[in-house]
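Narrative of activities, Objective 1.

The group set out to show that a structural description can be obtained from nothing but a protein's sequence at a throughput compatible with the screening campaign. Below is one input-output pair from the validation batch, recorded exactly as produced.
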Amino acid sequence: MSANLVRLNATVVAHEQLETKFSTFKDQAEKKFQFLYNENKLLKAENSHLKLQQKDADERLRRIEAQVGIEYIEAGDNADIENDEGERVDDGGQQSSANVKAEKDDQQRASDDALKSKIFRDLVGESFKILLGIQKIDAQHLPGYPMSIGEGTDKWPKDPATGKDLVRFDWRVGKHDDSINTTGLQRVVDRIRLVGPQMGDTAKGILSAILPGQIEKNVRTKYMRMVGEYRKADKKRKRVDEDDDLGDDIEIVEGGLDRAHMNSRVQSKLDARKRKCRSNECDGKWQDPKYDSAFILNAMSDDEDDPEQRPGEARTFLTMEPEWRSLELSTLFAAIDEVKDPRPDQAKLAKLRRRTDEQKTGPPPLARTLATRIRSWMVKTDILEENADWFDSGRVAHSGEAWGDEEPRELVKDRNRKGKAWDSGTAKKVIVRQRNTVDEASMSVLETAQQKLGEILEGIDDADILFN
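Output recorded for this entry:
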């Protein structure tokens, strides 16, 4: 074979390889574009929905103020009022002495400079890392809140050096004034005040220059940035499966996560089970249409943050089977989980899950629609007999003719009770909570955008994988 022919063959092979790579890159770029485009649509829908919720909240507040009898008046020219420090000032809040104002300005500048100093910023960061027991403050290392474990118990994460409880924040709640997070933030502040003066005269002088309340404010600001980092790694949202009677309430599951956040964790598990059930390797018994009702988010075991996960390790979830789950449903999922995933590429993207023999107490999740409601065959008979009200509250529906049961039905709201306050027999004043008036069309747009984004991700837990 001539040298020219060899070079020609090599060129053809290289060209074909380039075509293959180009096709792959093109597909990846298209998927990234679709993700970013639909994520933008979702953010717009969320923003629009939040504005409507704010408008609705303002209207609720107006009604409550009218019922309670709150009236706002303007202070007169000679009225005495108090500022934030409890000092008596005139109505205009003006200081009589220019020198006093200049002195306060100097103090404020000194405080601002101290807060911006590298020594103070390092002290804040180091305090968070030590109390959390981590080496680096980023989304990968931030530990989740240990669900179902009480602080102060033996299972609570401990500092290996001191044996003391580590700080844990519920990042998904996000609000720094939440009772869970407030305690942890105060421990950070206390450590700054304790350790800072021990670092030398420079650090001591910096802390003394900071005005009252500014350390706490700086710590809260740092915390909110960490919340943002955590949420970037866990921003996939799914629709909230809740009953319409809840108004604008969101069902909170044990541990503080709302149902939407918990559903986003188990979506990949549901997708995998659907794929396995449809595969040829699955036992035909489980492909009977009567089992289709089991493949919903509300039937999946909740995935909670693993309290035994160590900083720096790959993130894992702790899976606990609900105590109400029937033997038939448990057997179904156990058999499906043994089937080889026909999409191994998707299986590799799923988060690691550690199962425990401990069962999770509590009722099945509330469901807004019949399609997302737990069926009676999925619930243990004795538990269902003790909680017959689940049929009327939107937690359980009848299984239907295929199971020898009556057909399921959509719940009908009792409109005769609208606007009535029911006396509980106590001396409490009852205020009627008005039905949420947020435009249902906005919610529909939001849910559609969430669903579309989920279809693009195809069960991927972390969207950042697309860009790595």
